[in-house]
């Protein structure tokens, strides 16, 4: 499924139309990969859900932050609610040059956050220039005697340019030894003071439930619900459990609309198809959003525990269903029959008869009979199955044209009924029955002249009798 197009605004007056392909969530960054019609790729950057800038990619540097984001981060293919939410709340998306971007970062973020964010862009901006900007932040802290904050910047430089001479020198600088030891031991004090470092540590060990919960606490304190949803989804794919599922549902209900929640649950269900609470909630969403085809695609809705508030909308959908406007597969049609039998037993016979009448307009009776065959033992299906079977049996039997015509009439196929009654009239010219039917059918079709003509023939026949 293709995502909706959106626009990136560059230096030229004409906006660039692109389509999102995927999004990566990684250590606070959200990065949307999008392509234009010329097959050029653009990346749209966010930090903690807020838009930063967009950039056109020529080549991504190896071991860069953006490469790590799409390899080690949480990646979701478009279309996806995360993409829609970020784009809709951060419009318009503009390509910003470095100097205006630096001013923007100075206004919105701490110097440490600014240094970290700058590492996102080494595939788009000179690494030398980025290093200079981060180094400048370090020197400001060191001149002010803020050694812990200075060492926080060193930590960022160690990830960004570990082999740079200055970074090697600072790593072994005795002035920072106490802080280096604290980072090495990953003390609680450091984790409380350096949240960027803490998030890296918790994320790298998120498979461990203790660190996962610490990561979730940190994200919750920063109101980063998109990242939290992504992490819960990842956990559920590997370990389906109410421990992760219940808080996920609460987040979805709080932050996303019904359609967006349905998309998240659908994506999750494709990867964790046997987790029953998930399937139950997804089915309820389909019912609430009147998604009949999706309901039919569920393995067997009657296996789920549905209360009256869910079963009543199903019955309404079944009564309002018009098969002429929908294209359903054989499997979906058989699911439809099953649902009618299970959820609407009082009207099952009438509804199935109505569905079959519609199907016979465009399908061979043999095909329709095969659809019904698995349900032949059900009281609601047996009569209509028998009639379809007789349609097939009598189709070439000239002695049964009257019966065949009445069956076609019952299944709302007047043209075929007329053809059968016409044959019957020729085969039995003294029988008034086919004339009565021909007059009746033409009248109901609005063909008054033809109806009167057969009525007159019937009158004449009765006078001669």
Question: What would you note in describing this structure?
Answer:
This protein starts with a strand and ends with a helix. Strands 1, 2, 3, 4, 5, 6 and 7 form a 7-stranded mixed sheet that branches. Helix content is 62%, strand content 9%. By secondary structure, the chain is of the alpha+beta class. It has a domain at 1-122. Helix 23 runs antiparallel to helix 24 and helix 24 (433-444) runs antiparallel to helix 25 (448-464).
Total E-strand runs: 7
Beta-strand fraction estimate: 5-15%
Major sheet details: 7 strands, mixed
From the alpha carbons, calculate the radius of gyration and give it in angstroms: 35 Å
Shape: elongated
Low-confidence segments, ≥5 residues, pLDDT <50?
A: none
The proportion of residues forming helix, as a percent range, comes to: 55-70%
The total count of helices amounts to 25
- The structural class is alpha+beta
Task: Give the gist of this structure.
The protein has 25 helices and 7 strands. By secondary structure, the chain is α+β, with helices and mostly antiparallel strands.
Strand and helix layout:
Elements (H helix, E strand, L loop, with lengths): L4 E5 L6 E11 L2 E7 L5 E7 L2 E8 L7 H8 L1 E4 L3 H8 L4 E2 L3 H11 L2 H8 L8 H17 L3 H14 L4 H7 L5 H9 L2 H6 L1 H10 L4 H13 L3 H14 L3 H14 L2 H14 L4 H13 L3 H6 L10 H13 L9 H14 L4 H15 L2 H8 L9 H12 L7 H10 L3 H14 L5 H12 L3 H17 L1
Parallel strand pairs: 1-7
Antiparallel strand pairs: 1-2, 2-3, 2-6, 3-4, 4-5
Helix pairs in contact: 4-5, 5-6, 10-11, 12-13, 14-15, 20-21, 22-23, 23-24, 24-25
InterPro entries: TPR-like_helical_dom_sf (IPR011990), TPR_rpt (IPR019734)
Keywords: TPR repeat
């Amino acid at each position: 499924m293709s995502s909706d197009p959106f626009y990136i605004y560059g230096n030229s007056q004409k906006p660039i139309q692109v389509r999102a392909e995927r999004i990566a969530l990684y250590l606070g960054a959200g990065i949307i990969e999008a392509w234009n019609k010329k097959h050029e790729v653009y990346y749209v950057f966010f930090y903690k859900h807020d838009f930063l800038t967009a950039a056109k990619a020529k080549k991504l540097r190896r071991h860069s932050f953006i490469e790590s984001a799409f390899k080690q981060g949480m990646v979701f293919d478009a279309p996806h609610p995360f993409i829609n939410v970020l784009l809709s709340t951060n419009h318009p998306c503009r390509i910003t040059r470095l100097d205006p971007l630096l001013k923007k970062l100075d206004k919105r973020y701490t110097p440490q956050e600014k240094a970290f964010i700058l590492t996102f862009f080494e595939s788009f901006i000179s690494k030398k220039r980025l290093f200079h900007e981060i180094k400048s932040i370090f020197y400001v802290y060191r001149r002010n005697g803020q050694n812990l904050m200075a060492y926080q910047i060193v930590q960022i430089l160690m990830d960004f340019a570990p082999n740079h001479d200055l970074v090697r020198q600072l790593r072994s600088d005795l002035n920072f030894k106490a802080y280096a030891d604290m980072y090495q031991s990953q003390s609680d004090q450091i984790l409380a003071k350096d949240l960027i470092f803490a998030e890296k540590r918790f994320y790298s060990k998120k498979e461990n439930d203790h660190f996962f919960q610490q990561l979730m606490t940190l994200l919750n304190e920063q109101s980063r619900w998109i990242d939290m949803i992504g992490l819960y989804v990842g956990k559920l794919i590997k370990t389906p459990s109410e421990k992760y599922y219940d808080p996920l549902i609460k987040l979805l209900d709080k932050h996303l609309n019904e359609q967006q929640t349905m998309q998240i649950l659908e994506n999750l269900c494709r990867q964790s198809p046997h987790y029953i609470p998930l399937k139950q909630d997804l089915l309820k969403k389909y019912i609430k959003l009147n998604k009949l085809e999706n309901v039919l695609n569920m393995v067997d809705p009657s296996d789920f525990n549905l209360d009256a508030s869910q079963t009543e909308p199903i019955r309404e959908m079944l009564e309002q269903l018009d098969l002429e406007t929908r294209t359903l597969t054989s499997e979906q049609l058989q699911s439809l029959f099953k649902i009618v039998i299970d959820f609407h037993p009082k009207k099952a016979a009438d509804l199935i008869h109505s569905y079959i009448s519609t199907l016979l307009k465009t399908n061979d009776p043999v095909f329709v009979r095969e659809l019904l065959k698995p349900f032949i033992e059900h009281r609601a299906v047996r009569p209509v199955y028998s009639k379809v079977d007789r349609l097939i049996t009598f189709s070439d039997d000239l002695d049964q044209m009257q019966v065949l015509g009445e069956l076609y009439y019952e299944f709302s196929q007047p043209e075929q009924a007329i053809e059968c009654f016409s044959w019957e009239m020729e085969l039995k010219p003294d029988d008034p029955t086919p004339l009565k039917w021909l007059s009746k059918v033409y009248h109901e079709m609005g063909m008054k002249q033809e109806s009167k003509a057969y009525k007159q023939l019937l009158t004449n026949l009765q006078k001669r009798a």
